[in-house]
Amino acid sequence: MVTYREEGIFATDTVSGSSDVTSFTVDIPQNNVVSILNLQMHFTTETDNFQGRIECLNSGGSVQTVGYNTGTYGTTSNFGGSSSTSVPMNYYNLGAANSTSFTTQEGYRVLMFIHNAFVDFTYPFRHPTIWGHTSYELTSGGTKLANFTIKQKSTMKIASLRFSAQSGNIDYYRATVHPLADG
Amino acid sequence: MGSYTILRIRDDGDYDHVSISDADQSETIIGVVAASEKDRPFGRLPDDEQSYMLRTMRNDLLQETDWWANSDVTMTEAQRTYRQALRDLTSHANWPHLNADDWPIKPE
Predict the structure, then answer these.
(1) pLDDT for the residue A46
(2) Pick from A29, A45, B14, B105: CA 20 to 30 A from residue A177's CA?
(3) pTM to 2 decimal places
(4) Interface subset of A 97-116, CB within 8 angstroms of B
(5) Is residue B39 domain-resident?
């Protein structure tokens, strides 16, 4: 059941931190059709091809193999494939090391939807799916938008998501998970 | 409730990779990370994924400067060097795990 409160939809999990971590994990409702995850995080590394990365964990804490695709709006290329480890949530152009165009404040905001239930063992609706939008700033004042989608290859529900940096640490993060619709 | 992971230095100079529960702050050591790899506590990306990613990025950077080669534009030596350095990246000694300063700097 989705509960609405004065401040918005009830959050099933909220995590935050402001000291260096190598990763953080948030729990995902397993009994809802769709959840929303609202995330912002900041990285300690500054390189042009830098990525924030995400892993799907099952209830036993095991990383799930996924298919994925990530692209940035306005570019012709993208990353995609299959991975049994973490996958990117943004295409490149996040860093500042080799470009004067990009902010030294490497970090971004992500809004994602997790379609975790209604798994009826029939293609194309067999596997839990995530899709999201990643927004980050340029020093020019503009912004970049990356889109990504992840499809878990097993039918196990996603119990939690783990976020990490391609290299270095995350020195600020805040994430909230909200159920959007009942399963 | 979620959890987070940190690196905690050991007596031998390497790091324990520690998972901490948000609920009760209980700790579990999930691995040991060598001091030389402390920026990659979860390991390097597989070579094929890293190569694919960097080639894609390199190709985009070349495409962004294709107009320098237009017949009505004269390419400077710095621009020519930059584009050649991008083409040569795949034979760099650090390929496919390039450091930030292994990338050529785009001339103004």
Answers:
(1) 64
(2) A45
(3) 0.84
(4) 97-99
(5) no
User: Rounded CA gap, A88 and A13, in Å?
Assistant: 22
Does residue B108 lie within any of the structural domains? no
Residues B21 and B52 both lie in one domain: no
Cα–Cα distance, B39 to A172 (Å, whole number): 17
Total domain count, chain B: 2
User: Whose structure tokens read 């905001």?
Assistant: A109
CB contacts of A23 in chain B (<8 Å) are 4-5, 41-42
Does B41 reside within a domain? no
B52 and B19 both lie in a single domain = no
Q: Are residues B62 and B88 in the same domain?
A: yes
B8–chain A nearest CA distance, Å? 10
pLDDT in tens, B22-42: 999 999 999 999 998 888 898
Rounded (5°) CA angle B43-A90-B91:
60
Greater pLDDT, A155 or B66: B66
Q: Which amino acid is residue B50, in one-letter code? A: Q
Residues B54 and B27 in one domain: no
Residue of chain B minimizing CA distance to A21: B6
Of the pLDDT bands very low, low, confident and very high (cuts 50, 70, 90), residue B10 is very high
**Cα separation values, A172 from A51, A106, A107, A163, B59, Å:** 15, 11, 9, 12, 32
Q: Residues of A with CB below 8 A from B106's CB?
A: 98-99
Question: Does some domain include residue B54?
Answer: yes
| Residues of A with Cβ-Cβ distance to B22 under 8 angstroms | 15
The answer, for B25 touching chain A at a CB cutoff of 8 Å, is no
| C-alpha distances in Å from residue B8, one per residue of A110, B4, B53 | 29, 13, 31
| Residue B9 structural domain | 3-34
Confidence at residue A39, expressed as pLDDT on a 0 to 100 scale: 96
A128 touches chain B (CB under 8 A): no
Point out the least confidently predicted range of A32-36, A123-127, A135-139, A161-165: A135-139
Q: Which of residues 135-174 of A touch B (CB under 8 A)?
A: 160, 164, 166-168
